[in-house]
């Protein structure tokens, strides 16, 4: 089988129309989506708008975040915090016709907070430091829970909304009872200030494919409040700020790395090379490639 690259997707919304989807359960921002496909290297990028628990029944699902790589194998789970841009690679096992069978459980902040309070979770050790991704070994109880979901996928329209919520809470109980590290991660999330500082949200997401609505949601504010507070802090609009931060990063990458102008374009969050070249020239006076060449000529002239 040949390797193919997928476009960037926003999850969970855009996964509902994925060709390899085999069923889904949904309730007010909560989603469970089941996938089944034959693959030997399906590569892509995904922006997570909700927290994700991904269970691999068979096959291999590789997640890359920053400079780390996490390999999720059969009967394992990975937990990934929301508002993150991750690269993935889907692979099947050679002896099984490269079949990959997996499920994605999307959890919003409200459910996580409700669970932590309902379960009465207490810190096992100090809750500090960022743990955005972790691999979870799945025990027999959790495997039985996964199997119990099959009838729901067979008749999703008959499943009450509240039952989806209860089943997700049940999953969280199974996982915290068997994994202290996962419990630590949930406590970390529940202790996170919902009204996150706008500067932190912007710095973490300016290269991600986020809308103003997404940024407002991530900061725990309404759209109108977010825009008003942003204007008071930065004295400009969020879109102009994002464009300038992307251009500043693009300039740095052009001068300090060997990435092509096209790679710099997509690395910094621009979705069109033509648009990137246009706004870069407006800001710095030359298109990206010419800007790099002029800098190199100036550097060589100084050495002579």
From TrEMBL:
Pfam families: ExsA_N, HTH_18
Domain HTH araC/xylS-type: 196-294
Record bears the keyword DNA-binding: yes
Keyword Heme tagged: no
Keywords attached to this entry: DNA-binding, Transcription, Transcription regulation
InterPro entries, sorted: ExsA-like_N, Homeodomain-like_sf, HTH-like, HTH_AraC, Tscrpt_reg_AraC-type_HTH
Protein name: AraC-like DNA-binding protein
């Amino acid at each position: 089988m040949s390797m193919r690259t997928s476009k960037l997707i926003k999850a969970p919304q855009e996964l509902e129309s994925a060709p390899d989807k085999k069923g889904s359960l949904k309730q007010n921002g909560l989603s469970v989506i089941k996938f089944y496909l034959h693959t030997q290297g399906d590569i892509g990028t995904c922006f997570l708008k909700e927290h994700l628990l991904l269970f691999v029944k068979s096959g291999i699902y590789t997640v890359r975040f920053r400079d780390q790589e996490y390999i999720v194998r059969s009967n394992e789970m990975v937990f990934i915090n929301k508002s993150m841009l991750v690269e993935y690679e889907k692979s099947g096992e050679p002896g099984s016709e490269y079949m990959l069978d997996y499920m994605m459980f999307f959890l919003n902040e409200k459910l996580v907070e409700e669970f932590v309070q309902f379960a009465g979770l207490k810190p096992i050790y100090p809750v500090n430091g960022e743990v955005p991704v972790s691999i979870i070994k799945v025990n027999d109880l959790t495997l039985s829970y996964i199997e119990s979901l099959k009838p729901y996928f067979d008749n999703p329209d008959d499943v009450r909304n509240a039952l989806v919520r209860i089943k997700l809470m049940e999953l969280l109980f199974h996982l915290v009872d068997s994994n202290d590290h996962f419990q630590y991660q949930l406590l970390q999330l529940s202790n996170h200030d919902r009204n996150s500082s706008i500067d932190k949200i912007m710095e973490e997401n300016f290269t991600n494919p986020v809308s103003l609505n997404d940024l407002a949601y991530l900061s725990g504010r309404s759209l109108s409040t977010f825009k008003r507070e942003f204007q008071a802090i930065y004295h400009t609009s969020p879109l102009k700020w994002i464009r300038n931060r992307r251009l500043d990063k693009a300039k740095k990458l052009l001068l300090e790395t060997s990435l092509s102008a096209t790679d710099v374009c997509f690395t910094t969050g621009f979705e069109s090379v033509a648009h990137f070249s246009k706004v870069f020239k407006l800001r710095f006076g030359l298109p990206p490639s010419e800007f790099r060449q002029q800098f190199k000529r100036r550097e060589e002239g100084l050495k002579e």
